[in-house]
Amino acid sequence: SYVLTQPPSVSVAPGQTARITCGGDNFGSNSVHWYQQKPGQAPVLVVFDDSDRAAGIPERFSGSNSGNTATLTISRVDAGDEADYYCQVWDVFGTGTRVTVL
Amino acid sequence: EVQLLESGGGLVQPGGSLRLSCAASGFTFTNYAMSWVRQAPGKGLEWVSNVSGSGGSTFYAASVKGRFTISRDNSKNTLSLQLNSLRAEDTALYFCAKKADLSDAFDIWGQGTMVIVSS
């Protein structure tokens, strides 16, 4: 079955940039989507179709896709960005990355 | 306001059945494919099932195929998931999610309903 691999954790100081990768076997023509999930809450769509920000998402969040690796970048990180982040391609979710703000 | 509200979760014995519902509001329900996604305690997200806007096409994860049935009632703006032959590994928070327009992203999620399979 198709597997999307993410680093288990990313730590970043406030004001710095966090980069979360999502690796898979040649995404091909499929788009990559990203979700943020805070403890006890439902996931929230952050970026869709590789690089489009969802409604209400700050410009600090951006996405890119190189074909085998997609990246979610969070600029000027603040404490409110601390959460689990998941990538998705078609109906497969990534393994998830916990972002910790130091 | 666009909203999804799940219900129907609970404690059930292995081999038992449960029916989950999701009430949709704030958008033209029939225009959008809908899905169920689950999350086992402390684990990641797992897609479970999709249904097309008309209800005519359904898709299932291999882990639930033959045991779960997705359906929708467009006259009542309701999505359902019938869970049969439940196993301990089906224990999870089940989310109802709306497919985005012209994308396979999930743009709206409910808060989830918990299913616990245990004797």
- How many helix segments of chain B? 0
- Radius of gyration of chain A equals 13 Å
Q: What best-fitting shape of chain A do the alpha-carbon axes yield?
A: globular
DSSP E strands of chain A, number: 10
What sequence of helices (H) and strands (E) makes up the elements of chain A? EEEEEEEEEE
DSSP summary: helix tally of chain A: 0
Terminal CA distance of chain A: 36 Å
Radius of gyration of chain B: 13 Å
Could you please describe the fold and organization of this structure?
The complex is a heterodimer of chains A (102) and B (119). Chain A contains no helices and ten strands. In chain A, the strands form two sheets. In chain A, strands 1, 3, 4, 5, 8, 9 and 10 form a seven-stranded mixed β-sheet that branches. Chain A is 0% helix and 47% strand. Chain B is mostly beta strands. Chain B is built from no helices and eleven strands. Chain A binds chain B through residues 1, 30-31, 33, 35, 37, 41-45, 48-49, 54, 86, 88, 90-96, and chain B through 35, 37, 44-47, 50, 59, 61-62, 95, 100, 103-107, 109-112.
Short key terms for the protein model shown above:
heterodimer; A: 102 residues; mainly beta; 7-stranded mixed beta sheet; 3-stranded antiparallel beta sheet; 10 strands; globular; B: 119 residues; 4-stranded antiparallel beta sheet; 11 strands; 0% helix
